[in-house]
Amino acid sequence: MSFSSDEVNFLVYRYLQESGFHHSAYTFGIESHISQSNINGAVVPSAALLTMLQKGLKYTEAEISVDEDGNVHRLTEGLTLIDAVMPEVVAIRQNLHNQQKQAIKTEPTSGGETNGEEPAAPPEPAPVDTMEVDQSIEIPASKVTVLRGHESEVFICAWNPSTDLLASGSGDSTARIWDLSDNSTSPDQLVLRHCIQKGGTEVPSNKDVTSLDWNCDGTLLATGSYDGYARIWTTDGRLASTLGQHKGPIFALKWNKRGNYILSAGVDKTTIIWDASTGQCTQQFSFHSAPALDVDWQTNTSFASCSTDKCIHVCKLHSDMPIKSFQGHTNEVNAIKWDPQGHLLASCSDDMTLKIWSMKQDKCVHDLQAHSKEIYTIKWSPTGPGTANPNMNLILASASFDSTVRLWDVERGVCIHTLTKHTEPVYSVAFSPDGKFLASGSFDKCVHIWSTQTGQLVHSYKGTGGTFEVCWNSRGSKVGASASDGSVFVLDLRKL
Q1: What are the φ/ψ torsions at residue 385 (nearest 5 degrees)?
Q2: b/e map of 253-275 (b: 16 or more CB within 10 Å)?
Q3: Which of 44, 259, 290, 333 has the most crowded Cβ, counting Cβ within 10 A?
């Protein structure tokens, strides 16, 4: 068996990404020249590094437990990973195991006879519970369209707000637009290649496409890439503008409701408002002291940003300083979202807390502490005053690396439902347009659909890769999802 340094580097890079250490993964990828290797990330299964380490650990245990005659004697105590890489520890365990085997061989039997009975068979291993969900709620394959074409992980996907076009962004330096309007089993796809100028010619950037967003009427798609450029595309796949002011990867970007500005956040610690019609930088904000991770519009000209510097700033076009700053998180702030009316700002962090802020005060309105690991993302329901569903209460969903999703009554500051069917970190949640359902996607490869009223699981589907993103179409009839194995799939929830 042999392996190259490129292979080891890629597995470490993938592990960092899957564990949520995206900024560390980016830095490691640059330093180890991952983009120059010829490894096809789409064919490498998730958790590959851990799988290989587990197999190596079992092999080391097997070496210790096999005697000179080839007989296997089970270890009374398994090795830890650190033990297994320390030769002196392995040698000590080998000697102890040999002594235990010798003691067993020389120990006299109670009667010397078996009384004609067969030796007792070893106990059967305890059955493993593989039933993750009730089969009655599993979405049948006939209701699933799997879209293949990406050559690496698909980090993001988003439905066009007007038609059944699904956009996806991948580590293969492309975005794609899939046409699902005719319910075809093999929908057409437009490939949006992210290229850069090199030596006077266009070459693939070889950088991840990590963010994308449709404008309000669905006529334009904006994408953000690790190559440092934002781009605007038409629905027929034509590149309309290239936005080039950031000095490093772009982590997030959003259109405002009016559709005249695009907002982006980058590793260069800045956020930028772009004029969508010209592609020019209207204003660049440099208030964070570390990479900016997320942005969200409050109005058509004001927005909030968060960063690994633990701070949140609210900024306004043509203002030279933040109009409000919030501090209180003790670790990097992963995501921020304004409620539908723009009154309350929710934030989530690696400090395992979810906080609610108001422009009327400096301290947070609620400090919600219930998750036991990092909170990766949050979403407000499209319900309550000022929405299309005014008679339903406003709720907030949080997704965590503790494998749970929580639904919160923000007015009271209490958790009303804890959704616990996932078994791996949850990367994405999305509310249906009517607010009655929540989709969640996890690295356990499952997409679950929950009732927001009861917290019950109503539909479930297990894909072929860890799920990075889930999203609903505008009619609430389909859920799109993107995965670590390069697949994009669409769940048709009609008549289920």
Answers
A1: -55, 140
A2: bbbbeebbbbbbbbbbbbbbbbe
A3: 333
